[in-house]
């Protein structure tokens, strides 16, 4: 009687462990798919792939401009923000080019080097832009990214998805997939040993 209970409990445990392993594998596949349709296209589309050194030539705050959305149209309910324009000397070519914060900044507003988030209020935006100007005046030389193919003549300060960020994004689903496969493998080994013991 006790032996049957132990066997039943063992089978239940194996079934739960097997379901856990399959669930982990399924979740990791979904994460791979999500990363593949969101992060990977942005990474492959970016042409600013080579790092170089930029030297600030001038950082000016122009007239306030309305905040456009990703499509380029303007919202009437969004307050305008100061337009920061930063011009740098590109060490790789010696050209005077405009600096943008990220790839997304250029798409949202090519006239400004920095575009604030839509949730920020005007006081926060003004204080942040003034702080950015102060930092540029304090740190004249810094690393930046440019397009080695020459498609884009401007440069960006940081990439949205650098190679390290892409590897980090794939790290967690890889660990989950490996853990799920390991659990399934151990359950199958346990079942094989149990069948072998019963046969003997």
From TrEMBL:
One of its GO terms (cellular component) is voltage-gated potassium channel complex. The gene is Kcnmb1. Signal peptide: none annotated. The chain crosses the membrane at residues 20-43, 166-187. InterPro entries: K_chnl_Ca-activ_BK_bsu. The keyword RNA-binding does not apply. Pfam families: CaKB. Its main location: membrane. Keywords: Glycoprotein, Ion channel, Ion transport, Membrane, Transmembrane, Transmembrane helix, Transport. It comes from Halcyon senegalensis. Belongs to the KCNMB (TC 8.A.14.1) family. KCNMB1 subfamily. It is found in: Membrane. GO terms for molecular function: calcium-activated potassium channel activity; potassium channel regulator activity. This is KCMB1 protein. PANTHER family: CALCIUM-ACTIVATED POTASSIUM CHANNEL SUBUNIT BETA, CALCIUM-ACTIVATED POTASSIUM CHANNEL SUBUNIT BETA-1. One of its GO terms (biological process) is detection of calcium ion. It is a multi-pass membrane protein. It comes from the Eukaryota.
């Amino acid at each position: 009687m006790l032996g049957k209970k132990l066997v039943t409990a063992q089978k239940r445990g194996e079934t739960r462990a097997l379901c856990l392993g399959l669930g982990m594998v399924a979740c990791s596949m979904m994460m791979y798919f999500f990363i593949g349709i969101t992060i990977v296209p942005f990474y492959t589309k970016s042409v600013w792939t080579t790092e170089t050194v930029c030297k600030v030539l001038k950082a000016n705050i122009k007239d306030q401009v309305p905040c456009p959305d990703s499509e380029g149209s303007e919202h009437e309910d969004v307050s305008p923000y100061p337009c920061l324009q930063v011009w740098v000397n590109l060490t790789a070519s010696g050209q005077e080019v405009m600096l943008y914060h990220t790839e997304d900044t250029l798409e949202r507003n090519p006239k400004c080097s920095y575009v604030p988030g839509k949730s920020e209020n005007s006081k926060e935006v003004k204080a942040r832009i003034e702080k950015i100007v102060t930092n540029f005046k304090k740190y004249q030389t810094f690393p930046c990214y440019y397009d080695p193919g020459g498609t884009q003549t401007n440069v960006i300060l940081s990439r949205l998805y650098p190679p390290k960020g892409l590897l980090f994004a794939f790290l967690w689903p890889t660990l989950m997939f490996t853990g799920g496969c390991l659990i399934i493998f151990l359950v199958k080994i346990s079942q094989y040993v149990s069948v072998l013991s019963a046969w003997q």
